[in-house]
Amino acid sequence: MASRIPVSISFSSIANFLGTIGVIGSLVFVGLELRQSHQIALAGQIQARSELIAQAILAPLEGQSEAIKIWSRPNKEPFLSEEQELLWGQITRFRAVSLDNVWQQYTLGLMSEDSWSQAENRGKILWIDCEQRLYAIGPFTDSLEVYARANWSDEECQHEG
Q1: How many structural domains are present in the chain?
Q2: How far apart are CA 41 and CA 140, in angstroms?
Q3: How far apart are CA 61 and CA 86, in angstroms?
Q4: What is the 3-state secondary structure (H, E, C) of the chain?
Q5: C-alpha distances in angstroms, 140 versus 6, 22, 27, 38, 129?
Q6: Which ranges of the chain have pLDDT less than 50?
Q7: Do 125 and 148 touch, CB atoms closer than 8 A?
Q8: In whole angstroms, what separates CA 161 from the centre of its chain?
Q9: Domain membership flag for residue 52
Q10: How far is residue 111's CA from residue 119's CA, in Å, rounded to a whole number?
Q11: Which range marks the domain in which residue 44 is found?
Q12: Of 22, 41, 63, 91, which has the fewest beta carbons less than 10 angstroms from its beta carbon?
């Protein structure tokens, strides 16, 4: 004869257990939502700060037809004037702020791998060219500078501080 093990589980015990599991699941979901909302808020702050910095950098370039020529200046072509070099420095700073913004969005998980890869290729060009790096390194966050040194080049530029 088969022996039966008496199981005495009441309906209220099952309901309490399922209720507890439901509450735990809800808390986990709310926690994940809060984390995501926090990341989105951080990204918004980073974006707003980058926009303000970019506006300040771009303001001197407004109305400067020379800026368009300088933006597309062939690499290593000499500047015709000190003003051209100053404009080029502002453009380079703007590009660095933009790159840093993409970097921060990427590290928060809010930027796709493809978008970062495209920005990273432009960043490498800024970093490897010591003339550009002198202007670009100022707007870089510490984490982007560490990344650049580790992944793009750890070579020091002569005038780098």
Answers
A1: 1
A2: 21
A3: 10
A4: CCCCCCCCCCHHHHHHHHHHHHHHHHHHHHHHHHHHHHHHHHHHHHHHHHHHHHHHHHHHHCCCHHHHHHHCCCCCCCCCCHHHHHHHHHHHHHHHHHHHHHHHHHHCCCCCHHHHHHHHHHHHHHHHCHHHHHHHCCCCCHHHHHHHHHHCCCCCCCCCC
A5: 69, 45, 38, 23, 15
A6: 160-161
A7: no
A8: 24
A9: yes
A10: 11
A11: 12-151
A12: 63
Whole-number Å distance between alpha carbons of 148 and 58 = 24
The predicted pLDDT at position 161 comes to 46
Tokens 């995501």 belong to residue: 36
Note whether residue 7 is domain-resident: no
Question: Is residue 24 assigned to a domain?
Answer: yes
Distance of CA 114 to the CA centre of its chain: 13
Instruction: At 147, list the tokens.
Output: 């990344």
How many residues in the chain? Answer: 161
Name residues whose C-beta falls within 8 Å of residue 134's C-beta, 6 or more positions apart in sequence: 157, 159, 160
Q: Which of 103, 140, 134 is nearest to 118 (CA)?
A: 103
The pTM of this model reads 0.64
